[in-house]
Design a protein that fits this description.
The chain is mostly helical. It has a domain at about 65-150. It has helices spanning about 1-25, 35-85, 90-95; strands at about 115-120, 130-135. A two-stranded antiparallel ribbon has the order 1-2. It is rod-shaped.
Length: about 150
């Protein structure tokens, strides 16, 4: 009886092993449609979260560059005015005098959109040629804080 039960147990065990091997091989061939849908859904959710954050970081970087460019241009206009005892007539004067290597781009991506303020001829150092007192962006867009770039 003992020898017969061993034979029976091994047959049952062989069937289980055979069935489990066959099941593993069938399952290992690929992914089910449900698994693919779940994974793609998770990727889309992550993209939906990441893309707006990425776009906002790009806008913040452009705004930071604009603020730095504005500070540099206005500081250089003041330095030029104090050094030369007259205000520059254009931004090109700052480049030709060596105060700037080049005119930086506005937030619009071009150099042509800078809006420069001219001084009043009565208040200027050289009353015959009033020049620039400062510059601001010529863009009509608004920043992330809700203010127009042209007011910065």
């Amino acid at each position: 009886m003992k020898s017969g039960s061993k034979a029976r147990d091994s047959k049952v065990g062989d069937r289980r092993m055979t069935n489990s091997r066959a099941g593993k091989n069938n399952y290992a061939r690929g992914f089910t449609l449900i698994e693919m849908v779940v994974v793609i859904s998770m990727i889309l959710i992550l993209l939906a979260i990441a893309l707006p954050m990425y776009n906002q970081s790009i806008i913040q970087a452009r705004e930071t560059t604009l603020k730095q460019n504005l500070a540099t241009i206005n500081k250089v206009i003041d330095q030029y005015t104090l050094d030369k005892q007259k205000a520059p007539q254009s931004l090109d004067d700052l480049v030709s005098a060596g105060y700037l290597k080049f005119i930086p781009n506005d937030i619009t991506g071009t150099k042509d959109t800078w809006q420069c303020d001219t001084e009043d001829s009565l208040k200027s150092i050289d009353q015959t040629q009033p020049g620039l007192t400062g510059c601001h962006s010529g863009s009509s867009q608004t920043g992330l804080d809700g203010t127009a770039y042209s007011t910065w």
